[in-house]
Write a structure and sequence with these properties.
Oligomer: single chain
CATH architecture of the largest domain: Alpha/alpha barrel
Strand content: 15-25%
Number of helices: 16
CATH class of the largest domain: Mainly Alpha
Radius of gyration: 27 Å
Largest sheet: 10 strands, mixed
Number of strands: 34
Length: about 775
C-alpha cells in the first residue's frame, strides 16, 4: 500500500497547489464562463512500458449532456496543452496540443500530468495522477479446478449445509414450477418441442431467464462434490440434486439448436420493439442477453465435467458446440458485436483454459480470442454497460456494477493470456479505482447510482450505507480479484476476495437456506424467498461452493495457499506429482492453522502461504494495524520464511505427512473511513480477522448512540447464531455492546419491541 499512500499525498498536494493557482488567476483577470470546462480525466495506472490514453476535454459545453457526448465549441480560441507537472522520468505525448492523445513514460513511478487551456479570457488547468508500475510475471498461476472435496470447518460446514440442504433444493423447486412467471425449466421444455416440430408456447420471463437454470445446474454440480460425511439431510439433498440433473440435462440439450446456439428466448420466437423477429447477434437488440445466458451455460459445463471426472461429457460437448457456433459467426475480421450484459467474455476464457487443460493442442485458444474480440468491440455505447469507450481506455469503474465486474474479470483474463500492456493498464486502473475509491468495508460494491443504473456505481467516495451491493456484483468481484491473483501472484488480491466472500456474500442467504439478499446494504435490509429478477439465486451458491478454486492455485514452482478453510482437497500436477492438502483450523474464529502436505511422491517445490494483511483499501484505516505471522513451523520446527508478495515461501523436498503450523494474529480492530466518504464521517466499524461486524437491536438496547472508547474483547458464543465469535464492549451510555459477524445479521426478530419485528442492524456506529 506504500505506492497508494504516495499517490494520495501527491494528489492532495497538487489539488491544493492548482486550486490556489486557479484562484489567483481568477482574481486577477476576467471570470471564466460558467460553460467553460477543462477536464484532464481520471487518475489511472500504467504498466510499463505501455502508454495511457488521455481523453481530456477543454472547451465550452452543455453540461446537461452526457460526458462522452459533449462537443468542443469549434469557435473557441483554446490551445489545449498537456505537460508533466512531476514524476521521476520523462513523459512523451503523441500530440501535446490535443486534449485526446496518448502519453508514454521513460521509467516507473508516480507522475502528475496537467491539461491547460488558454485563451484571451482565462487560463484554466486540470491534473491527473498516473502510477507507472512494472508488468506482472510472465506466466499466470494455474487454476485448481474444484473436484470432490471435504469441508472440516465449524463455520463453512454450517454455511455449506444450509446451501445444500436448504437453498439449492429451494431453487430447484422454484425452477421446476411450470407457473413460475420469471421463467424456469419449462422454457427449455417448450424450446425442445419447437425444435422437434411440435406446438410450443412462448418464452416466459426476461430474455435472460435461462441464466438461473444454468447457474443452478452449476451450483448442483459443485454441491455434489462436497463430501456429505454421512449426514442424512445432505445425503437426501444430494440424491434430489442427482435426480434433477438426470431430469434437466436432456431437457436443456434438447433445446440446443442444430448449429449449437442455445437460448430459448430466440428459439421460441423473440420479437423486437417493432414486433419483427430478432436475429442472433443483432446490434439493435443488445438487451436480449445472448452472451449472458450462453456464458452461464458454458461455465456450468466445466463443473459438470469435473464433478463426473470427465465420464459424462454431455454438457462439455454441448458447450464446445455452442462456443464453436459463436466462433463461426463472430470474431476477428468480422463485424464488431457485443452484448448488453457481459458474462460470455469471462466464460469463454475460463472455458478456453479448461479445454486446453483437458485436451491440449491449443484447442481452447479460439474461445479466448473470441472473448477478446467481444471486449474489443465495446465502444460507441453508454457507461451503463461499459461500452462508452474502448475497454483499454476505461480507467474508472462506472455503470451497472454486475456488468462492470464481469467485464473487468474478462479483461483481467485477456490481459493474463495476451500480456497486452493496454489491457494490463486498464485492468490495474479499474481495480485501483474500485478498491481505493468505490469499495465498501464489507467487500461489496455498487452504491446504487442515480438514473437507470440502480445497481450501479456512484461517483468516487459515494458509499452510502443504504447500499445496493447486489449479490451478483459480489460474485463478480470475487472472480475479478481471483483473476488478478492469478496474474500477479500477489496475496493482496486474495486478501480482498476473502473479504468479499466472508462479508458481502457469505450472509447473502439466511442461516437456514430459505431466503436471500438481492441487495446487501450496510444497515437494515430484507431477505426474500425469491425475486422478480432472480439472477442471484444460483450465482450465490455456485460462487461460495467453489472453495478449492479460491483456496489454492498452482505455479511453476509449487502451490499457493490463499484461504484457510478446514478440509481436504486433492490437487493434480504440482511439481510432477499429485498432492492431497489437509487443513485443520477453526479460522476465522482463531488464527491457528495446521496443514498436512501429502504428495503422492516426494518432490521438491515451494508452498506459498498467504500472510493476511487487513489493510486492503486506502479508504479505511484500521487500529490497531494487523498483519504478518505470529509463528510458522515445519514439522514442529519454527522457521522464519521469506515473505514475498504477501506470501511466506517454504521450499523443501516434501513427503507425505509433512506439516505446516502457523499462527495468524487475530485482534479486534476499529475502522474509520477516509474523510471524503461523507456517509461514514464520525463513524466507526469493527473487524476481527477477515470478518466485519454488525450490531443488532436483538442484542443491544439501542444501536443509535455512540460506542464507548473502551477496550473491546471477543467471546465465543456456541449458543448464538449457530456459533459465532462475538465482540463485546460498551456504548457511551454505559450499556453493554454486543456485535456479531455481518454475515450472520438479520437471522432473528427483534423481541425487545412490544411485538416481534424485523431486526434493525448496522455496520457503522457513531464514534464517541
Amino acid at each position: 500500500m506504500k505506492s497508494l499512500t504516495a499517490t494520495f499525498a501527491l494528489s492532495c498536494l497538487l489539488a491544493t497547489t492548482l486550486t490556489a493557482a486557479a484562484q489567483d488567476t481568477n482574481s486577477a483577470g476576467p471570470k471564466p464562463s460558467p460553460h467553460l470546462r477543462v477536464e484532464a480525466g481520471v487518475d489511472r495506472d500504467v504498466v510499463f512500458p505501455g502508454k495511457t490514453y488521455l481523453n481530456g476535454y477543454a472547451g465550452y459545453e452543455d453540461a446537461r449532456r452526457p460526458r462522452q457526448n459533449r462537443q468542443q465549441d469549434a469557435g473557441t480560441n483554446f490551445m489545449p496543452l498537456w505537460s508533466k507537472v512531476s514524476g521521476p522520468g520523462k513523459v512523451s505525448f503523441a500530440d501535446a496540443h490535443s486534449a485526446v492523445t496518448t502519453a508514454k513514460f521513460s521509467t516507473e513511478g508516480v507522475y502528475a500530468l496537467k491539461l491547460a487551456a488558454q485563451d484571451p479570457s482565462t487560463n484554466l488547468a486540470s491534473t491527473l495522477i498516473v502510477n507507472v508500475q512494472g508488468p506482472p510475471p510472465k506466466d499466470r498461476l494455474d487454476v485448481v479446478y474444484t473436484r470432490d472435496y471435504q469441508i472440516d470447518s465449524p463455520l463453512w460446514n454450517d454455511r455449506a449445509k444450509s446451501l445444500i440442504v436448504g437453498w439449492i433444493p429451494h431453487c430447484i423447486d422454484e425452477i421446476n414450477d411450470p407457473n413460475l412467471k420469471e421463467g424456469g425449466i419449462n422454457n427449455f421444455v417448450e424450446a425442445g418441442k419447437k425444435l422437434r416440430g411440435e406446438p410450443a408456447k412462448f418464452h416466459v420471463g426476461y430474455p435472460f431467464a435461462n441464466a438461473w437454470v444454468h447457474q443452478t445446474v452449476e451450483a448442483i454440480c459443485l454441491a455434489l462434490m462436497v463430501d456429505p460425511k454421512d449426514d442424512p439431510a445432505m445425503l437426501q439433498a444430494q440424491k434430489k440434486m442427482r435426480a434433477t440433473l438426470d431430469d434437466w440435462i436432456p431437457i436443456i440439450l434438447a433445446a440446443q439448436e442444430p448449429d449449437g446456439y442455445l437460448q430459448t428466448r430466440f428459439t421460441l420466437g423473440a420479437r423486437g420493439d417493432n414486433g419483427r423477429a430478432v436475429h442472433h447477434w443483432d446490434p439493435r437488440t443488445r438487451g436480449e442477453h445472448e452472451g449472458y445466458v450462453a456464458g452461464y451455460f458454458i461455465e456450468s459445463a466445466i463443473n459438470h465435467y469435473t464433478m463426473t471426472n470427465g465420464k459424462d461429457k454431455r454438457l462439455y460437448d454441448a458447450a464446445k458446440k455452442l462456443a464453436d457456433c459463436w466462433v463461426a459467426n463472430l470474431g476477428p475480421g468480422r463485424k464488431p458485436w457485443f452484448d448488453g450484459h457481459q458474462e460470455m467474455e469471462q466464460a469463454l476464457v475460463r472455458f478456453g483454459r479448461f479445454v486446453n487443460d483437458m485436451e491440449g493442442h491449443g484447442r481452447g485458444d479460439a474461445y479466448i480470442a473470441l472473448a477478446q474480440f467481444l471486449l474489443d468491440s465495446r465502444q460507441g455505447g453508454s457507461e451503463y454497460d461499459q461500452s462508452h469507450l474502448p475497454v483499454v481506455q476505461q480507467y474508472e469503474a462506472v455503470g451497472h456494477a454486475v456488468r462492470a465486474a464481469y467485464t473487468y474479470s474478462g479483461m483481467a483474463d485477456v490481459a493474463a493470456e495476451t500480456h497486452d500492456p493496454d489491457y494490463q493498464s486498464a485492468v490495474l486502473s479499474l481495480w485501483d479505482n474500485i478498491v481505493n475509491k468505490k469499495y465498501y468495508v464489507t467487500g461489496g460494491m455498487g452504491e446504487g447510482a442515480r438514473g437507470d443504473a440502480s445497481e450501479g456505481f456512484g461517483p468516487n467516495y459515494a458509499l452510502g450505507n443504504d447500499a445496493y451491493c447486489e449479490s451478483c456484483s459480489s460474485c463478480g468481484l470475487v472472480f475479478f480479484q481471483y483473476k488478478m491473483n492469478l496474474a500477479y501472484h500477489d496475496a493482496k488480491y486474495a486478501d480482498l476476495y476473502e473479504e468479499t466472500l466472508y462479508n458481502a456474500l457469505l450472509g447473502a442467504t439466511d442461516q437456514e437456506g430459505q431466503t436471500f439478499y438481492y441487495t446487501n446494504p450496510l444497515r437494515g435490509g430484507r431477505r426474500a424467498a425469491w425475486h422478480n429478477c432472480p439472477c442471484c439465486v444460483g450465482n450465490i451458491p455456485r460462487t461460495l461452493l467453489m472453495l478449492p478454486t479460491w483456496t489454492y492455485a498452482k505455479g511453476d514452482d509449487g502451490l499457493y495457499v490463499n484461504l484457510f478453510i478446514g478440509g481436504a482437497v486433492n490437487i493434480e500436477k504440482v511439481a510432477g506429482t499429485d498432492i492431497q492438502m489437509i487443513q485443520k483450523t477453526d479460522y476465522p474464529w482463531s488464527g491457528n492453522v495446521a496443514m498436512t502436505v501429502n504428495p503422492k511422491e516426494p518432490r521438491k517445490f515451494s508452498i506459498h502461504v498467504r500472510v493476511p494483511d487487513r489493510h486492503t483499501s486506502a479508504l479505511y484505516t484500521e487500529s490497531p494495524a494487523v498483519s504478518g505471522l505470529l509463528s510458522l513451523a515445519v514439522n514442529g520446527k519454527k522457521t522464519t520464511p521469506k515473505i514475498q508478495n504477501g506470501y511466506a515461501i517454504i521450499t523443501r523436498t516434501w513427503k507425505a505427512g509433512d506439516k505446516i503450523d502457523l499462527v495468524l494474529p487475530m485482534e479486534v480492530q476499529r475502522l474509520t473511513a477516509d474523510p471524503k466518504v461523507a456517509a461514514d464521517k464520525g463513524l466507526v466499524a469493527l473487524r476481527y480477522g477477515p470478518l466485519i461486524y454488525n450490531v443488532e437491536r436483538a442484542d443491544n438496547p439501542s444501536i443509535t448512540g455512540p460506542i464507548a472508547d473502551k477496550p473491546l474483547s471477543v467471546d465465543w458464543r456456541p449458543d448464538l447464531l449457530h456459533g459465532v465469535m462475538a465482540i463485546k464492549g460498551a456504548w457511551a451510555d454505559g450499556s453493554a455492546l454486543l456485535a456479531i459477524p455481518n454475515y450472520a445479521r438479520n437471522n432473528r426478530l427483534d423481541t425487545t419491541a412490544a411485538a416481534p419485528r424485523q431486526n434493525d442492524s448496522q455496520v457503522w456506529m457513531k464514534s464517541n
